[in-house]
Design brief:
By secondary structure, the protein is of the alpha/beta class. It folds into 2 domains: 238 residues, Rossmann fold, CATH 3.40.50; 48 residues, no CATH class. It is built from 12 helices and 12 strands. A 7-stranded mixed β-sheet has the order 3-2-1-4-5-7-6, sandwiched between helices. It has a 3-stranded mixed β-sheet with strand order 10-11-12, with no helix packed on it. Strand 11 and strand 12 form a beta hairpin. The longest helix has 30 residues.
């Protein structure tokens, strides 16, 4: 199924959606280093990106009409206007790309769309604006007027929603905050996904439920105990972790989690990689040691036997706390680029291009590939089911 990938970054969302069965007719990204990463992987022959047509340009300037029909529009509009570490300007921030995403939907009229953003967009301070984003995507043809402020535009959209009108291009839109760890990604990463289906297709869809849980991890570690045996972990590591999670362990029994898989941990993700300070690490791409890691109050790094903390991009270099690992001997070191890619579930053969700061920014902004695949596969299955139903109706009319 043909798609359009906007704000592609280093390719996390696009790779996951490609695995889900979508083929991008165009991949649009304004950042040079992100485009270089994708193009470098094309030169290396990485199969998933071989046919991607990468456009290094501002999405505001892209000619959407030139693409023809697409089934899906996807992307992660830049999150700085909503990020907890940003300036919180939302609509008043020039970096807000949701208006561009809405324009792409309006012009291409896809069967569905998937947009992703940071948890910060759900904050109380942005409640009206988050509702505004969803209503614009629901009624993309109701465009803001010249000299109309966004609150007045929001009022018109609310009136359209409550009117019950079925005229014009409309989408049934749902949004949910997903924790990547609940879907088997070795990282606590909460992101908002906004998914819409064109209303004339009569789709019934909901987000796929999580498959992994913290309680199941605790049971794996301290119930059956097979976690430690699998990793041949030291007894000292087990005792240290037991002290860390003791309160959670006492509360872990929850029948609803009984059938779920355990959260994946940092150890699960990187245990087969050599220490980046060793000679063996030299043969692994993007697995270079970076000195200088140190903790500071509130930012003490990720531990081996839990999912990693949320990797962050940072506006001024690589953030120290979230992008480093707390070792069992009390020392700290930064995750390498390859380790960070593992935590974001990028394939090992996918190379990140640029300096350490630039590659870590790409990873800190990325959608975990596996999470994109889970959501994308669910959307793809729904679209294919709808097509099959239409074909059956057509066949019955012809009979």
């Amino acid at each position: 199924m043909r798609s359009l990938e906007l704000f592609a970054g280093g390719g996390g969302l696009g790779l996951g959606l490609d695995l889900a069965g979508f083929e991008p007719a165009a991949v649009v990204e304004w950042d040079k280093w992100c485009c270089d990463t994708i193009r470098h992987n094309q030169l290396l022959g990485y199969p998933l990106v071989q046919n991607w047509k990468v456009h290094h340009c501002d999405a505001k300037e892209f000619d959407y009409a030139s693409l023809g029909e697409v089934e899906l529009i996807s992307g992660g509009p830049p999150c700085q206007p909503f990020s907890l570490g940003g300036k919180h300007k939302a609509y008043n921030d020039a970096r807000d790309m949701f208006p561009t995403a809405v324009r792409a939907v309006r012009e291409l009229k896809p069967s569905a769309f998937i947009f992703e953003n940071v948890k910060g967009i759900t904050r109380a301070a942005f409640a009206n604006y988050f509702q505004y984003v969803q209503l614009q995507l629901s009624f993309p043809e109701i465009v803001i007027r010249a000299n109309e402020n966004w609150l007045d535009h929001l009022s018109r959209l609310e009136q359209q929603r409550t009117s019950g009108s079925t005229e014009g291009l409309r989408y049934n839109v749902v949004a949910r905050l997903l924790n990547a760890a609940d879907y088997g990604i070795p990282q606590i990463r909460e992101r908002v996904f906004i998914v819409g289906f064109r209303s004339d297709s009569d789709q019934r869809w909901s987000f796929p439920e999580g498959t992994h849980s913290y309680n199941a991890l605790l049971d794996h570690q301290f119930g059956a105990g097979t976690y430690w045996e699998t990793h041949s972990a030291k007894r000292a590591d087990r005792a240290q972790h037991l002290a860390r999670v003791k309160v959670g362990l006492e509360k872990r029994l929850d029948a609803s989690d009984a059938a779920l898989l355990p959260w994946q941990t940092v150890r699960d993700a990187i245990s087969d990689l050599p220490d980046p300070r060793s000679k063996a690490a030299r043969s692994i791409i993007n697995h270079n040691y970076q000195p200088g890691a140190r903790p500071y109050p509130g930012h003490t790094g990720s531990v081996l036997d839990l999912p990693a903390k949320t990797l962050k991009a940072g506006d001024h270099g690589v953030p120290g706390g979230e992008n480093m690992m707390a070792l069992s001997d009390g020392t700290y070191r930064y995750f390498t680029v390859r380790e960070s890619a593992r935590l974001q579930t990028f394939p090992d053969g996918y190379l990140f291009h640029g300096s350490w700061t630039e590659t870590m920014r790409q990873l800190g902004n990325a959608v975990p590939v596996r999470l994109a695949q889970v959501v994308g596969s669910s959307v793809a299955a729904q679209l294919l089911s709808a097509k099959e139903a239409q074909l059956k109706k057509y066949a019955l009319r012809r009979a």
